[in-house]
Every structure is written in C-alpha cells, then in structure tokens.
Specification:
CATH architecture of the largest domain: Sandwich
Largest sheet: 4 strands, antiparallel
CATH topology of the largest domain: Immunoglobulin-like
Structural class: alpha+beta
Number of helices: 1
Number of strands: 8
CATH class of the largest domain: Mainly Beta
Distance between the termini: 111 Å
Helix content: 10-25%
Number of domains: 2
CATH superfamily of the largest domain: Immunoglobulins
C-alpha cells in the first residue's frame, strides 16, 4: 500500500511589506549615524564649534567710594575658546573693556570697574548686563545695583 506524504506549505521568513519597512528603518538609522559622525568630523577639522557662556546668578554691582564695581562668575560651556572683551551694564554704554580668556569648561571671575561719570546707577534697581565676546556674540544677564 502506497503511503501518502502530505506536503503542507511551510511559511518561513517575513512578509515582503514588513521586510521592506525593516530595511528602510535600518537604512535611516545608519544614515543618521553617518551624518552625525561626518558633521562632528568636519567641525573638528574646520575648527567650527559653539561659543556659549553661562553667567552665574551671583552677579553684583556695588558702589565703593564713588566707583561702581561689576563682578560676575562666568563658565564657558561651549566647545571653543572664548574671550570676553567688554561688559555693558544698563542702557547707557558704560563699559570698560576687559580681556578674560575662557577655554571650554573654564570658569572665571569677571571684574569690571565702571568709573564713567555718566553711569549713575540707583541702588535697588535692576539693570541688564551684556557680556560681549571677541567673536561678536553677546550674552545677557541682570544685576541689582547695591
């Protein structure tokens, strides 16, 4: 008696639509990783980077013997060197030039003596401060005189 061998169709593998979606997802992930790597590589070769300063909230503006003194603690949280070349306190241009160099991760105390006679600050008043870098960027904070 002959035996019958039943051959059932065996499904193995993924459906074509699911396989296409998986391949596209893998391609996108690889493309994003390559783009991030190339951008980082070209940024390091060309010297491009980000200049960013963090100004701590302990800024002060005090008057001692008729002269105003501005003090601020600043950290370079960017990826390139930064040099502070000027500080302006208030709306009038009462800025003394200063050269404070900050490498990435460096923290420095910025001290500015403001002796211009037109810069009369009022104790208890809040003033906007602009810290200007050699690259032409301006970073802002506020300070209360007194």
């Amino acid at each position: 008696m002959p035996t019958r061998i039943s051959m059932k169709r065996v499904k193995k593998g993924l459906e074509p639509l699911i396989a296409a979606i998986v391949l596209i997802a893998i391609t996108l992930i690889v493309a994003i990783a390559v783009a991030a790597w190339v951008t980082g590589l070209f940024a390091s070769i060309t010297g491009a980077g980000v200049e960013k300063l963090y100004i701590y909230p302990n800024t002060t503006l005090k008057r001692i013997a008729g002269v105003w003194y501005f003090n601020a603690t600043v950290t370079n949280v960017g990826t390139i060197n930064s040099t502070i070349v000027g500080v302006t306190v208030g709306f009038s241009y009462c800025s003394n030039s200063t050269n404070v160099a900050l490498g990435p991760g460096d923290t420095r105390l910025v001290n500015v003596t403001i002796s211009a006679p037109s810069c009369n600050y009022i104790n208890g008043t809040t003033y906007q401060v602009q810290i200007i870098t050699q690259a032409g960027n301006t970073f802002y904070t506020v300070v209360v005189a007194g």
